[in-house]
Task: structure prediction
Amino acid sequence: MPQTIGESRDAWGLEVWKKAEDFANHMKHETKPFYIVYAAKQDKAASEKHGTGVFKQTFKAYYKRPPKILGILVWFVNNPIGIFEFQPDLSFPYDVPTDPKLISEKAEDALPSVMEKGKQMNVLLS
Result:
């Protein structure tokens, strides 16, 4: 069966989101607000050995606002008040593929900064 455009990206995005939720749940005992930072990097040696792309992934907790760095995704967590929130302004790329059922279609939920970045990068926004 042929692969469709976005199939791997969507599956990867949902997997990363689930892992971020798992990380936050593992840190439920933490009362101080923190950021979860995700990064992935290709493992060239493993990729050559297996003949396919192999990536190392990591999640870390930061108690200070992380800087914008190419290739990271960031979530903010505040356990005492029940916040687990993706931070598109600190993440680059600026989006995480998610199930369309989870995405709001309300205009007031749109982030102008994401739309502006999309225009600057000349990419299609859905």
